[in-house]
Amino acid sequence: MPLTKEELLKSEFYQKLKEQDRQTYLNELEQRRKLSGGVVVTENDQIIINEATPPLRNDAGVFIAVEDPFEEGKNLEEEDQLIKISKKTTVYSTDPVWNDILNREFEEL
Amino acid sequence: MRINTPLNDNDYRELKKESKEVLGASGYLNPPFGQSTDDYVEVHLLDTDGNFLEKFNSIHTTFEDDTIILNIGQDLRDRDYNRGEFQVRYHFVRKVAGGDDIVLTKTVSGQPNIIHSGNPALTGVPMGQFHTDSEGNAFVGENPPANGQDAQPLDIKEWKFKIDEISPSRTEVRIVPQLINNSNYVKEFRGLIEPKRYIPETAWTEYVNSYTDLKNAWNTIKRDANSGLAKWWRPRLQFEDNVTKKADFGKLHWELFGQNASNRNLPTQDGGGQISWTGPDSSRLEFNVRREVEDEGFKDFMIGSTITIKKAYVVGYETRPDTQENSGYSAEDGIPELYIQAVNVPDTKQVNFTMYTKDGEEFNPNTNGVQFYWEFGCGHIKEASKDSTASHNYDTEGSYAPTVYVMTPNFQDEVTEIRTPSGRVLDFVELGESTSTDETDTTTEAGESQLDGRIIKWEGDGGTPIKNLSGDQSTTNTRWFVQNGYRRWITNGENLQILRDALNIQQKVNVEGASIPGSYIPTDIELEGSTINSLPIGPDLNDLSFTQGPFTTEQLPTEDMGEPVFLGFWPMQEVEETSDDETDGDDDSGDDSNSDGTEFTIKLFNSPIVTSGPLSERTAGSFVKFGNPQSTAYENTNDAVFLQQNFVTSQNINIKAKPMGADGVNIFVGFFDDPDFTQPSFSPQPDADEAQQVFVNGNRNFYVKVQSDM
User: Fold this and answer.
1) What residues of chain B lie within 8 A of the CB of A106, using their CB?
2) pLDDT tens digits, residue range A66-96?
3) Taking the CB of residue B325, how many other CB atoms lie within 10 A of it?
4) Is the whole-model pTM more than 0.90?
5) Which of A7, A61, B116, B216 is deepest in the core (most CB within 10 A)?
6) A66 and B CB contact within 8 Å
């Protein structure tokens, strides 16, 4: 017999299953973080977040966005879930040299 | 890593600057991205195959200092993308014109596309009421007409500009405005290409004040709210009493009408100001008088823009030449007459060269402005340098004619004359057993004259005879001894007496048995100057001549004595050989000393200070010094009775003297061979402080005479 959402939330079995899935999810996340250098395991087996945390990526280098296991639809708020880009960029010489190097005239329109 | 741009590698390398910067820190891109309300981040979502899915604006992108922080996961979850793999592209966009706002347009009196409703901040006109039907069509009025008439329809348009055409290469687009009859819309479109003009806020009041009709209009708008003029302007000005200013009216009028009217001009000044260059070599302008405080002045986005200053007048200027007179400048002197002094290093093929002036001074300016280029006559050269000396090892023995090119900024000279240290002119530098760069002349025959063995003197006419090899002028007091057809100048009275004694010349006596001064038996032969000059000049007869020189009774070892300019020098060994057997005196020793190393002394006696006695005998003090080759400082009578230098080698030296006392007070007379100043050493005498060259080969004293004005 199908259960409603409210009934599921009250179901102990469902809650245990949900917690079990969440734990599996967190373990998998931790494992990925270890592989990507996002966490450091100390001699006392303590896990600390790497201060220079790189974005979490898989083996192919693809960025992995992780959902908050406690809040559906919300992304995990961790440093490795953000991609930081410097605003500094290559700049180019303009007047008067670029007119000597580039053809800046309209040609087609 | 290079950011992918349409630039090819070559153009990229040429145009890129070395350091990276935050775009928009100044200039037309100011402010930096994220600081403008027109900035937004557009996310393009694609599947893993690159197929476009949708685009949306990111609301989770943040900015910290110089860093952009992307929260991709949340951006996607907001769009309900909870699982799967995607490609995302973030576009950082700044709106420069247009927007997503909707406007409603209508036709008024046959004029279409008039704004009926829209954001007043954009359109500049108040929002009109409208309603829509079930199909979404818009009509004028809050509700449909009650009388059943048709409502006036409205067009719904976006406040955007259209891409009219995209070039085949997709690198160029043509953008056109829509048919919206609104000055703000047109102005915004123009702003895409027209230069942005900065007009000081205070200028708008001046604009109204400069036109009577505008002044009157403003007064009406301000005071008579019910006038037609006020009813038209007040909504557009969002007029509020005591808040809306004349400047607001001026600005709006200019934007709506004035800028398009040929008879309206924008005010360009605010009471004038001063602009000056920040320095004589600066390209920067400085505004010395600022506008009123309400003027915001220059802003960061103006950096790199062009400033136009109209009606600017020069009210004063100062001419500053870009050159300054060099007070220490003097026109360059020409290159003096020079010769090359050559000195052979014994037992080698090395010859040392030094540049000398014809005055006997070493020529060594030691400045880059005077360059010496050496050609040693054997094919070897020494590149141009400031070095006035050179040393060269010749590969083989032989005769070489070195040449030196002397170059200054304005002059050039080719020097080919070669001399030995003693002044003898050489045609070549000789390297080999039978030749020498030095002063050894070889002779096989002696000359001959009817006057041999006699003392001669100048009778005072027929031209002034040359006294000696130095070319000095003689006087009637000068005496020569004729030997082997050559005349030898007797250098002083003491030597003359020694010679007379050696030749057993007796002084005449009168009938009373007393000696007659200046009269001898045999008498000194008086000759015309031309006759004396016809006798070639031999070496000076000085005190060493009686002990070391070519003795008076010996044949002079000259082969080319026909040359009246130079006889050469006779080393002791040579003289002794000729003295013994009257044979030739070949000598290739290369030794130019006056003897076999015997030292001799030259003394320069300062003029004594004599302040008593007849005026003609009063003398003042002097300074004396040696010049080339062993230069000394001047010493005066008070510090030194005389200066002396010792020499081993016969040579030309320079001596100088000048009077003590203020300029022009005491008169330098010259050098004399005796302390009584009866035998001038030189004729003519040198001027004060003028180098006098003299050949020395034995002890000799020079007595300086300075005539006192007392």
Assistant:
1) 172
2) 999 888 899 999 888 999 999 999 888 887 8
3) 7
4) no
5) B116
6) yes
Domain count, chain B: 6
Query: pLDDT tens across B212-250, in order?
Result: 999 999 999 999 999 999 999 998 888 999 899 998 999
Whether chain B has a CB inside 8 Å of the CB on A25: the answer is no
Q: Is residue A39 part of a domain?
A: yes
Sign, CA dihedral B263-B267-B271-B274, equals negative
Q: Which domain covers residue B294, as residue numbers?
A: 202-316
Query: Nearest Cβ partner of A83 from B11, B72, B167?
Result: B72
Residue in A closest to B164 by C-alpha? A109
Residue B185 Rama label (left phi>0; alpha psi -120 to 50; beta)? alpha
| Partner B contacted by A89 (CB < 8 A) | yes
Highest-confidence segment of A79-83, B23-27, B291-295, B660-664: A79-83
Q: Are B20 and A88 inside 8 Å of each other by CB? A: yes
Enumerate the residues of chain B whose CB falls inside 8 A of the CB of residue A99: none
A47 touches chain B (CB under 8 A): no
Is position A61 within any domain?
A: yes
* Tokens matching residue B630: 């062993």
What's the pLDDT score for residue B512? 76
The answer as to whether B6 is a domain residue is no
- Tokens 């009471």, located at residue: B271
Q: Does residue B419 share a domain with residue B342?
A: yes
Residue, of B494 and B434, whose pLDDT is higher = B494
Work out how many domains chain A is built from and give that number: 1
| Interchain contact A63–B (C-beta under 8 A) | yes
* Residue in B63, B77, B174 closest to A73 by CB: B77
Is the residue at A18 inside a domain? yes
Q: Is residue A97 part of a domain?
A: no
**A83/B21 touch (CB, cutoff 8 Å), yes or no:** no
Structural domain containing residue A49 = 5-82
B482 and B523 housed in the same domain: yes
The whole-number average pLDDT for the span B539-560 is 59
CA distance B373 to B402: 11
Residues in B touching A92 (Cβ below 8 Å): 7, 15-17
* Among the listed residues B392, B390, B348, the one whose alpha carbon sits nearest the alpha carbon of residue B372: B390
Query: What secondary structure does DSSP assign to B547-582, as a single string?
Result: TTSS-TTS---BSSTT-TT---B--HHHHHHHHHH-
Quick: pLDDT tens for B291-341. Answer: 555 566 677 877 777 777 767 788 777 777 777 888 888 888 889 999 999
Q: Please report residues of A whose CB lies closer than 8 A to that of B66.
A: 86-88
Q: Could A75 and B68 be called an inter-chain contact, meaning their C-beta atoms sit closer than 8 Å?
A: no
Q: Do A92 and B16 touch (CB under 8 A)?
A: yes
Task: Return the SS3 of B221.
Answer: helix
